[in-house]
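Predict the structure of NAD(P)-dependent oxidoreductase.
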Amino acid sequence: MKKAIVTGANGYIGSTLIKEMQKNNIEVIAVVRNKDSKNNTLPENVKIVYCELDSISSLIDLVPDNDIDVFYHLAWEGTSGGDRANYQVQLLNAQYACDSAIAAKKLNCKKFICTGTITEKIAENILNIEVKAENTIYGIAKHTAHCLLDVLCKKLDLPFVWARLSNIYGGHNETGNIISYTLQELRKGNKPSFSKAEQPYDLMYVNDAAKALYLLGKEVTSENCYFIGSGSPRILKEYLLALKDVYGNGAELGIGEKPEDGLKYYWEWFDTTDFVRDTKFDAANTFEENILETILGLTNGKMQTT
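Done. Here is the predicted structure for NAD(P)-dependent oxidoreductase.
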């Protein structure tokens, strides 16, 4: 891989991926929505192309390059907050993912990579479970996009990889996911509240996630779907208690204070065997080391992403 295009380039994971690729001398074309978008997370020397998601098919006119190796589609509206339950927003995302694949084909890209979520596994069985939490709409839309792309990319004869992510933490994460929420509350002097936190989880450091995505583009991949994780899943409560110990300062956690949501996760969902086999990925540090770096970044008044 010598050249790549990234949508959602100024986002949490996208900007970290670009820095990882630049470290490996990959030329990157960063696609962001418009000139009013915040680009302060992007390196100064990256080539930026402005294109709204609903106009993603116009990339063929905006990008003159015809030697792009990998197209990373990371752009997705409503990854946090109330829009995760907005079916209109989420369904449009699935359409934009397909539009991006068509654009990738027209740009003669050699591989198309799109990111998913572990909650797709719940979406796969949504009709057979009693819990109908609105937030599962996000996972349902991701699962829908995955299914559509699997069919579409075969029709286009476009090599396709679906990278299923779990909870990503570290860096400038403002999504409000489990670690982001916990650290925000602790910094305010509050006690964050949780359910019993007895589900298996795999929390992955954002720099590791960026490295993993880079390797998916660089290496020959034999599967069209991989779970991308640290390779060391734990019970969520264990992660939270480890964070509490690293944070110190008399931090308190309200484990068991919230009701269970009824959604079940399974250890086998976090299996990275195929991914490690094809990419030789190995997480650089432990959760404790990464969470300490994250906390120090917050304490110093900046969010570290490199």
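Residues 176 and 227 are 22 Å apart (CA to CA).
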